[in-house]
């Protein structure tokens, strides 16, 4: 029996099988968060984000929601079931016995928070204090799925304390310089320490029985070890990309399109020793096309490489941001139907097409795409 829009089922084993049910984020009440250790390390030193925080202008929120609503409708028109999160008041301070920050962030990028592996949806730890309570935006949906699907597992990783011990203090300077950042990235010296398990869901790519996880600013080795213990039937592989001075989330760096094909950011290539697993099993890793833009939109954390932050609808169909003409042309030449989506004015709220979605159901079962290990 196949998927039915009238029956809720949680199931997604990879990044490319036919998408049937998805969560698309919202931009409501999104805030630029106040300074904090994890955030300060992420904001580029020449960014217009430095020193700014507070609620984003309403006209930009309205524009982002217009685009997100349009994307949701495009998916629905293609037969995909779309659910949306429930924002809370992000202007309220987030506080625990260990720390307080003056606002939360938002709920545009569910991919950061929610990891679907098979019949399970796992809430990530998160490594930013301003994102501590973000999971609450999705709880109504997860409770609904749990009530309607007897096979669904709703799990939450242990909430970290996020004290100052979780962060290396040498990253707190705003004058580190890119050369030093690249040196630290090559040495795998990131802002997060190994005090406790930390991971964002957007650092994880799903390849059937294999999970590929980026070690960087938002996911530490203890977080990757926790994922291996939590998914004992999976093989969990640690990757890193030395060319990235701000290594946060894998989906603007390493993007599977279909079985056997991955796009890799040419400025952040996977090291040769880590490529072996893919090459031994017949996977082709190609350099992604150059972005169409020389700079990110105003007040945006992300790099121009959101060009390769695409959403695969099935192995022959991929959503690409409509202004990213070079990425669209590359995928077209690789035999992929490109669906253009207008989303650039929403980038600043949490990312691109992959970021603003989270899988609930894709066709297909758990397969072994790396039999030669």
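Sequence proposed for the structure above (373 residues):
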């Amino acid at each position: 029996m196949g998927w039915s829009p009238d029956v809720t089922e949680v199931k997604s084993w990879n990044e490319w099988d036919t998408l049937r049910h998805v969560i698309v984020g919202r931009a409501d009440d999104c805030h630029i968060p106040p300074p904090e250790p994890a955030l300060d390390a992420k904001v580029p030193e020449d960014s217009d984000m430095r020193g700014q925080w507070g609620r984003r202008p309403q006209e930009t929120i309205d524009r982002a929601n217009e685009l997100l609503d349009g994307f949701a409708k495009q998916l629905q028109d293609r037969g995909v079931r779309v659910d949306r999160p429930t924002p809370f008041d992000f202007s309220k301070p987030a506080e625990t016995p260990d720390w307080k920050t003056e606002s939360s962030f938002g709920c545009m990028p569910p991919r950061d928070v929610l990891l679907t592996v098979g019949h399970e949806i796992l809430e990530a730890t998160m490594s930013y204090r301003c994102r501590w309570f973000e999971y609450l935006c999705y709880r109504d949906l997860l409770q609904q799925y749990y009530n309607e699907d007897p096979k669904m597992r709703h799990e939450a990783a242990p909430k970290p304390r996020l004290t100052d011990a979780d962060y290396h203090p040498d990253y707190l300077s705003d004058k580190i310089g890119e050369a030093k950042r690249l040196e630290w990235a090559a040495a795998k010296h990131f802002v997060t320490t190994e005090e406790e398990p930390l991971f964002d869901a957007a650092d994880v790519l799903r390849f059937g029985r294999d999970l590929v996880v980026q070690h960087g600013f938002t996911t530490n080795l203890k977080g990757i070890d926790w994922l291996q213990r939590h998914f004992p039937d999976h093989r969990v592989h640690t990757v890193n990309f030395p060319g990235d001075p701000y290594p946060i989330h894998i989906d603007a760096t390493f993007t599977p399109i279909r079985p056997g094909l991955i796009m890799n950011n040419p400025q952040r290539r996977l090291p040769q020793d880590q490529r072996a697993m893919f090459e031994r099993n017949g996977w082709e890793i190609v350099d992604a096309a150059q972005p169409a833009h020389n700079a990110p939109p105003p007040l945006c954390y992300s790099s121009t490489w959101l060009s390769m932050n695409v959403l695969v609808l099935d192995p022959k169909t991929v959503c690409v941001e409509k202004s990213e003409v070079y990425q669209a042309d590359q995928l077209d030449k690789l035999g992929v139907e490109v669906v253009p989506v207008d989303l650039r004015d929403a980038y600043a709220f949490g990312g691109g097409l992959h970021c603003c979605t989270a899988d609930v159901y894709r066709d297909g079962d758990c397969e072994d795409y790396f039999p030669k290990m």
